């Protein structure tokens, strides 16, 4: 995994993505008990994202020119299937911009903060998200103040109130 | 039954177990994920539900450099 993380930084240095942060299951499992997952989701902010259509082609071109296997939307980078996902809404863009710098396997990388991951789960609201979100409340140390600020900013307070009413969290 | 003291002790212990697992080092959690991938793929084989192409056991020891 060390080599995979090194390659993410190489992509950023090459300017293929402006900023990135680990999201999805692996980011969740950084904060809560690990569960089965098969891919590493990387949320990316691209250059000129505000003004032009987002194309993920540069990632696939980079993969082909570096001999990395492409499996549907995943690129297998140094033994791990990685899915690059554009930060597709203001919440996710801010989550990437505010990502926490950490060192994993001795490599500097970025991971979305728990309060933003929780807000994203509340926003997407699939059954899997609700189950994971409840685990965050039980297992993760997070800032209630930041969480509430993010919910208010991105108009998710009502969804949170509904979740609390249903599950008593 | 669920409210009995004995059951509460079991539930509390289970909660503590999950909290301990949640506080493990990330590098150790990744090793657990790899172990879970092996178990999940074996179960899928038994159930005859083929995994998607990207569902494979991670090689977390890769040190290959192409730079």
Q: Could you give the count of β-strands of chain A?
A: 7
Strand-pairing-aware structural class of chain A: alpha+beta
Summed up, the helix count of chain A is 8
Per CATH, what is the topology of the largest domain in chain A?
Answer: Beta Polymerase, domain 2
Compact description:
Chain A has about 170 residues and is of the alpha+beta class. Chain A is about 50% helix and about 20% strand.
Please give the structural blueprint:
The complex is a heterodimer of chains A (169) and B (67).
Chain A: H1 2-13, E1 19-23, H2 24-31, E2 40-45, H3 57-65, E3 69-71, E4 74-77, E5 80-86, H4 90-97, E6 100-104, E7 107-111, H5 114-124, H6 127-139, H7 144-153, H8 157-167
Parallel strand pairs in A: 2-5
Antiparallel strand pairs in A: 1-2, 3-4, 4-5, 6-7
Helix pairs in contact in A: 4-5, 5-6, 5-7
Chain B: H1 5-22, H2 26-47
Structural write-up:
The complex is a heterodimer of chains A (169) and B (67). Chain A folds into two domains: 2-112, Beta Polymerase, domain 2 (2-Layer Sandwich), CATH 3.30.460; 116-167, no CATH class. Chain A is built from eight helices and seven strands. Chain A is globular and about 50 Å long. With 169 residues, chain A is an alpha+beta fold. The mean pLDDT of chain A is 93. Chain B has 67 residues and is mainly alpha-helical. Chain B contains two helices and no strands. Chain B is flat and about 45 Å long. The chains are: A alpha+beta (169), B mainly alpha (67). Chains A and B meet through helix 1 and helix 2 of A and helix 1 and helix 2 of B.
